[in-house]
Amino acid sequence: MNNLFNTKNIIKLLAVLFITITVVSCQRDGSAEEDDIPQEELTNIVLAVTDIASGTTADYNYSIGAGGQPTIILQDGKSYSVTAKFKNGNEDVTQEIIDAKNEHFLIFDFPKSTINITRQDGNDLRNDGKRVGLKTTWNVVKVVNGAAPFLKLDLIHAPQSVNDAQNGTAWGSVVGGETDAEATFNLSN
User: Fold this and answer.
1) Strand partners, 142
2) Residues 52, 81: contact at Cβ < 8 Å?
3) Burial class, 63, CB count within 10 angstroms (exposed 0-12 / middle 13-18 / buried 19+)
4) ∠ CA(12), CA(15), CA(19), 5° rounding?
5) What pLDDT is stored for residue 48 in this prediction?
6) What are the pLDDT digits (tens) for 108-119?
């Protein structure tokens, strides 16, 4: 009669378990190592919105994964200077996005508003001549152009190509890449 629990069978079982655990734990797509700002490290997206005429600034803080959407107050016919900041807790990691500008791109989508965007990142251009969109000017034509207007903001990592032109209701589009962060801000006037 064979003994299932003999030393030889236990050693074989342990070897199979060890190999299985090793293979499973090493199967990663590498994206976490390649991404300079993994999604797990972004906690907040803050939009600093400055009324160009008055110079008044308001910060709108979207907390990733916490629920709730801040409401950005805009007025029809006005222009605003908007700066996007990305945080990991209390640490501002926006400079990391600037340092890796060729790997990042922002898409601003206003599906129920008419707002024209101009990217103002200065001379800090990507290799393809496009701007990431961390600094923009918003020319507001109509804030409320439908029920419950909002801004959907996406930070894209490693797109194959980018286009900063308007694409439907969005300013900017990409081919390929992954979403590093996504925020939704309500809009009102």
Assistant:
1) 114
2) yes
3) middle
4) 140
5) 98
6) 999 999 999 999
pLDDT band for position 18 (50/70/90)? very low
Other Cβ atoms less than 10 A from the Cβ of 10: the count is 11
Q: Count how many Cα atoms sit within 13 Å of the Cα of residue 85 in the half-sphere of its side chain.
A: 13
Calpha distance 73→143 (Å, rounded): 9
C-alpha–C-alpha distance, residues 87 and 42, integer Å? 6
- Cα separation, 89 vs 128, whole angstroms: 32
Measured CA to CA, the distance from residue 21 to residue 59 in angstroms comes to 47
Residue 58 in tokens: 């308001």
DSSP the chain: ---TTSHHHHHHHHHHHHHHHHHHHH---SHHHH-SS-GGG--EEEEEEEETTT--EEEEEEETTS----EEE--TT-EEEEEEEEEETTEE-HHHHHHTGGGEEEEEE-TTSEEEEEE--TT---TTS----SEEEEEEEES-SSSS-EEEEEEEES-SEEEEEEETTEEEEEES-EEEEEEEEEEE-
